[in-house]
Amino acid sequence: MFSIALSDSAKLCPLEPWQAEEFLTHMDRARSNLDPWIPWASRSTDLASARAALQSYADRQAADAGRLFGIWRDGVLVGGVMFVSFNRNTGVCEIGVWLEKAAEGNGLISAAVSHLIDYAFDERGMSRIEWHTSPANERSNGVARRMGMRLEGTLREAFLHNGVRHDTEVWALLPSDRNR
């Protein structure tokens, strides 16, 4: 299987529908940490819904419109990164991430996001990478800063989650930002 080393004990690999059982087990461990930020965390509650979440990204991959990767540490799925959207025609994509609490603080997300940024700009010729996050998600905002992204604005009450409207910050990175 294709994989990229993120550390001595962690790797980045495609996360696909055939891994739904492992994904569900991971979601069960991570749900309380992820639910405030990741809508499909609360929707992946059984094998069928977990498989559907993974299938939606497999369909995006087949259409060259998105992609999902898992992060495994010591052989256990602990999080992931994704191209939430990937539009080759406009040259704009969005990266998203998630991680179990127990795996935080080891640089896994930053390492994985760096690989996606390099791929988007260097191999696919994208013009803009976006990062959408809640203003309250300090860990996510920190990753955006470490990656050199700029906060471009806040979309007020743009995101409905669990019946509540939330603000969304939009961060972005352009190829020219990498040279600063």
From TrEMBL:
Domain N-acetyltransferase: 24-177
Protein name: RimJ/RimL family protein N-acetyltransferase
Species, as recorded: Stackebrandtia endophytica
Top-level lineage group: Bacteria
SUPFAM superfamilies according to UniProt: Acyl-CoA N-acyltransferases (Nat)
Record-linked Pfam families: Acetyltransf_3
UniProt xrefs under Gene3D superfamilies: 3.40.630.30
Alphabetized UniProt keyword annotations: Transferase
